[in-house]
């Protein structure tokens, strides 16, 4: 496991998500969840939508078209915990956001 710089704090306003690629070819959805930065695999297992385009609600991200919802702490789909995405540790140092991959 290694830490990679993924974004600047100022890249994401509160409530926003963004696709980041701290390692080329490995897209991660990064969210500013009202001041807490959280990271999860970007590709939705339903039909491949980008979770970075999803809407935040409490500690979850909801993909807008089909409503699959993932917990940003555990990566689990809230209706079917067997469907689980990987979540990643995030830390903020100064203006930089780092993700451990
Ligand atoms: S692609 Fe994610 S809910 Fe359909």
Structure description:
By secondary structure, the chain is an all-beta fold. The chain has a single domain, classed as 3-layer Sandwich (Rieske Iron-sulfur Protein), CATH 2.102.10.10. The protein has no helices and 10 strands. The protein has strands at residues 3-8, 17-20, 28-33, 36-41, 55-57, 60-62, 69-71, 87-88, 90-93, 96-100. A 4-stranded antiparallel sheet has the order 2-3-4-8, with no helix packed on it. Strands 1-10-9 form a 3-stranded antiparallel sheet, with no helix packed on it. It has a 3-stranded antiparallel sheet with strand order 5-6-7, with no helix packed on it. It is globular. The structure holds FE2/S2 (inorganic) cluster.
Instruction: Tell me the number of structural domains.
Output: 1
Q: Radius of gyration from the CA trace?
A: 12 Å
Shape: globular
Number of strands: 10
CATH homology superfamily: Rieske [2Fe-2S] iron-sulphur domain
Based on secondary structure, the structural category is: mainly beta
**Oligomeric form:** single chain
Q: In the CATH hierarchy, what is the class?
A: Mainly Beta
Low-confidence stretches: none
CATH level-two architecture: 3-layer Sandwich
What compounds are bound to the protein?
FE2/S2 (inorganic) cluster
State the helix count.
0
Pattern of helices and strands = EEEEEEEEEE
Task: Name its key features.
10 strands; four-stranded antiparallel beta sheet; single chain; mainly beta; 0% helix; 101 residues; binds FE2/S2 (inorganic) cluster; three-stranded antiparallel beta sheet; Rieske Iron-sulfur Protein
